[in-house]
Amino acid sequence: xxxxxxxxxxxxxxxxxxxxxxxxxxxxQLTKTHIGLLEIRASQINGCAYCINMHTKDAVxxxxxxxxxxxxxxxRETDLFTEEEQVILEMTEExxxxxQKDLSSQTYKKAEALFDKNYIAQLIMAIITxxxxxxxxxxxxxxIEQ
Length: 146
Fold this sequence. Notes:
It is built from 8 helices and no strands.
């Protein structure tokens, strides 16, 4: 893969702004499990190897099981995820694929039944943030560190 610019090197203020979002999400009410699942799923959808690698490792460090990580892309086909996690994964898919359809009313109503408005807002911001990181990593060809 061709080497491309390092945005953090040439435009550090841009990365600082992105890290501001990361800090916000880290200080939010979102659980590490919820953050990990949405980061992994969005990164899978976007095909971001760099982010999949990073966030699966982080999820393991935060106590996530290998089995759940292995099947997160097929979450609808298993009972390994709670109702809350299923709604988060559904939100992640719909927001990540927003060009195909909106965050559906059905999914939003499920979220409202399970989470308060602040948690929903935090979920949306976390999903948007990982999608931005995916796009940075893919467009600049960030390489997986071994």
